[in-house]
Write a structure and sequence with these properties.
Ubiquitin-like (UB roll); about 25% strand; six-stranded mixed beta sheet; binds FE2/S2 (inorganic) cluster; about 625 residues; alpha/beta; single chain; Nucleotidyltransferase, domain 5
């Protein structure tokens, strides 16, 4: 009997199943978590996945209620209703449309100025002087006389195509959408149109989207999705290699990204009551490799010294030229790159944290698959980038997962009894306080991984070198099936997959490599700026929002700073993209600061290797 091999991205876990098994069953067999509240009866629609390669059974009528035709064409399916007819590659799409409270928490307490690049101007056509003129010339005259705009405004073709119908519909009263007071990008009937903007943060592992009302800056909808480029490699170097080694590699990665972004915009629009066509402006941040692939630029040069990007300044491009399905006339403004791997995402972080307006020296760390570090103040800013890898996003960790409902986000270990307790995203309090079925965990996310390592170290279950110490007799510590030592964080009877959730010796090594890269990068900048100590630290990144500062310091994730002076600010890169969306002056500020930051190339730093080796220890070797 033929068996099928099913590969799940982004975890890249694989399993072999007999015909007749569903993709959901295959995922459970592989230990891959897929949210499935109705337990595979096609009633909840939560088990959406994207079949990237291989053929599968047809869509049933029941399934079609949850997956639109457009999404079916992109390979979206319900895992519980889909049966392999071939070997498959399946992307756990990780779509998550946040409730507004979650977004408010991320973007709270930050003042904003409403000064968008696209404005509405209500006019009557023909112009006030009543002279007959071609419609668009009449519109330009009205815009000049009523609002003082230049008569030589450009007009995009769709605006010319819309104007005749718009004039007919509301007795000549129309709203012109004007970009930067330079180009008419749309003409709609009536007045006071809803104008929306999209801020897009393209991470190596996760893509975050924020849709806001450009009239008041209010966030209407936000969501995130797994970057489908995970199929081509977990980190930026493997994406560069894919581009370099495949003729249409960049194009394929760009198309997959756009498909996921477009599908998520459509779902956010349906859920939060807007139309994608109402989005008339967009800003984008991302690390240098993501930035290039988003624009369809081969990132190959970034793989070779001196790691020169193809473009460094900000880029404006029509949405229709990128294939992003918002108003096709709108511009997508991609923020500038600082240097090498320090990309537009870091510019977004700087716009959000504004160290260049402060006297106090801050160390700003953007924690993601690629870690970016900035140190300085209004006098001088240094930046560098380090390859932390995807461990903190839960990838390449045996039971790792993104911080989403079902992920263990907090762990504590009793040093006397070695008993483990944990807290799960989506529920309040510790597991020991709940009935066993309250919310079953499915894996460990970054903050849970850091907590586990910190508590293992404090309880002297692992040593400074990260290795499990001999002589610890406890039921949770064992040698796993692959012959590697591991600690059981949650027993199979408590979990959503029915399998034990463990942290292995190899996983701990991954954490050590990631934290050593970050710690060493911070030390190099501190040495360059010749400061004695760090008095203010800002931790950005969606995962950084959830870390326990004491535990992060306990494993030496970064150099010492009083925890009171460490601010966890969430997705600051996305917040920077949002600021540039609602205040066009921020785009100029971004261009200015991107040019003024001094980039430190770690690969050329003679002390980096020494700092890295010192930082492999837990917490780190003393200097
Ligand atoms: S598990 Fe509910 S629809 Fe598939």
């Amino acid at each position: 009997m033929k068996e099928y091999r099913i590969l799940f991205a982004p975890s890249m876990k694989e399993t072999v199943v007999d015909p007749g098994k569903s993709v959901l069953e295959a995922a459970r067999q592989a230990g891959v978590y897929i949210d499935s509240p109705c337990n595979g009866t096609a009633k909840c629609g939560k088990c959406r996945v994207r079949v990237m390669e291989g053929s599968v059974s047809g869509v049933t009528a029941q399934e079609a209620e949850f997956v639109s035709n457009a999404d079916q064409k992109l390979g979206y399916r319900l895992a519980c209703m889909t049966h392999p007819l071939d070997d498959l590659t399946v992307l756990i799409s990780g779509e998550d449309i946040l409730v507004s409270d979650a977004t408010k928490k991320i973007f709270s307490g930050r003042s904003t100025i409403i000064n968008p690049a696209v404005r509405n101007y209500t006019i009557d056509i023909p112009g006030e002087d009543g002279r007959p003129a071609a419609l668009i010339e009449g519109a330009k005259t009205a815009l000049a006389s009523r609002y003082g705009l230049k008569q030589e405004l450009a007009a995009d073709l769709p605006a010319l195509q819309q104007i005749s119908q718009a004039v007919k519909e509301d007795k000549g009263t129309v709203t012109a959408l004007v970009w930067e007071d330079r180009e008419i990008i749309g003409i709609q009937p009536g007045s006071d149109l809803k104008r929306l903007g999209l801020a897009l943060d393209i991470g190596t592992t996760t893509v975050a989207l924020y849709v806001c009302d450009l009239r008041n800056g209010y966030i209407l909808s936000s969501g995130s999705v797994t970057n489908p480029q995970a199929l081509f490699g977990a980190e930026v170097m493997s994406r560069i290699a894919y581009s370099a080694n495949h003729r249409d590699g960049t194009k394929r990665m760009q198309q997959e990204l756009m498909s996921s972004v477009n599908a998520l915009i459509a779902r956010m629009a349906a859920k939060d009551g807007f139309s994608a066509q109402q989005i008339v402006d967009a800003t984008v941040v991302g690390n240098t490799v993501m930035h290039h692939i988003f624009l369809g630029i081969a990132p190959d040069r970034l793989g070779l010294w001196p790691f020169t990007p193809s473009v460094q300044s900000s880029v404006k491009v029509k949405a229709r030229d990128l294939g992003i399905r918002i108003d096709p006339s709108s511009y997508v403004h991609v923020l500038p790159i600082e240097a090498g791997f320090v990309g537009a995402d870091n510019v977004g972080v700087l716009l959000s944290a504004e160290p260049y307006n402060k006297d106090e020296v801050s160390l700003i760390i953007d924690l993601g698959t690629n870690g970016e570090v900035v140190l300085g103040n209004r006098e001088r800013l240094l930046c560098c980038s380090c390859a932390t890898g995807p461990a903190f996003e839960g990838a390449h960790i045996s039971c790792g997962m993104r911080a989403m409902p079902g992920a263990i986000e907090k762990v504590r270990i009793d040093p006397a009894t070695f008993e483990v307790d944990y807290a799960v995203v989506g529920t309040e309090g510790w597991a020991s306080e709940h009935e066993p079925d309250h919310l079953r965990p499915a894996g460990l996310c970054g903050s849970g991984i850091i907590d586990t390592v910190a508590h293992l170290f404090r309880a002297e279950i692992i040593g400074e070198d990260g290795a499990f110490l001999p002589g610890r007799d406890m039921p949770r510590l064992r040698t796993g099936a692959s012959g590697v030592k591991e600690i059981v964080v949650a027993w199979g009877g408590e979990t959503a997959t029915g399998r034990d959730i463990v942290l292995t010796q190899k996983d701990i090594r991954q954490v050590q490599l990631a934290k050593a890269a970050l710690h060493a990068a911070c030390r190099i900048l501190v040495n360059h700026l010749r400061i004695e100590s760090i008095t203010r630290m800002v931790i950005a990144g969606a995962f950084g929002m959830h870390i326990d500062k004491e535990n992060a310091l306990a494993i030496g994730l970064f150099p010492w700073c009083d925890p009171e002076n460490i601010d966890l600010v969430g997705n600051a890169a996305g917040h920077g993209a949002y600021l540039a969306l609602i205040d066009k002056e921020k785009r100029k500020e971004a261009d200015r600061i991107a040019r003024s930051v001094t980039h430190i190339e770690l690969a050329r730093e003679k002390d980096f290797q020494r700092e890295f080796l010192n930082a492999l220890s837990i917490p780190h070797k003393k200097h």
